[in-house]
Amino acid sequence: MIAASQSLTQLRLISTADYHRMAEVGILGADEQVELIAGQIIQKMPKGPAHSALCKRLEKLLESQLGEHALVRMQDPIQLDDYSEPEPDIAVVRPQDDFYASHHPIPTDVFLILEVADTTLERDLGSKADLYSAAGILDYWVLNLSAQQLHIFREPSPGGYRRQLVLKAPQSVRLQAFPTCEVSVQACFGMA
């Protein structure tokens, strides 16, 4: 008879170093839409035109308000820890002269992470929020494309964000790191 502890399947978590090596040797293709979350390679969902347009609108909006005070990155990796390297739709990070050529931004470099959710709403509001909170990301936003709502997550803790708000037009919010940068829900969704 097999002991109970021997019968359980154990996962082998993939580290960010392993993940990068897999890409270098061709196990992961250059065009594969994946990200490393909590040691597991997760398939990313394809982005439709409305999702892409909203991301571009937000990129322009944030860049116009923040100027040289921050770098707005689109769907680029953030290394949260040794086992998570998500690629959020938008990350507002501390500027660096080399634009992070030598390493991906880490949590202390991040001012804001923004995800646009259509088919991924449950994951973005659940497991991704928990992941970003555990990493200490101070300002995490999720734009719910279908409901045209902006979910704000603040005050991270190991057990999840302690403060959450849901905004609709005509409400607006200021970035925690840049109190003069105000973003309205109407502007996010391109409403007149």
Automatic annotation (TrEMBL):
Pfam families: Uma2. InterPro entries: Nuclease_put_TT1808 (IPR012296), Restrct_endonuc-II-like (IPR011335), Uma2 (IPR008538). Gene3D superfamilies: tt1808, chain A. It comes from the Bacteria. Residues 17-185 form the Putative restriction endonuclease domain. This is Putative restriction endonuclease domain-containing protein. It comes from Halomicronema hongdechloris C2206.
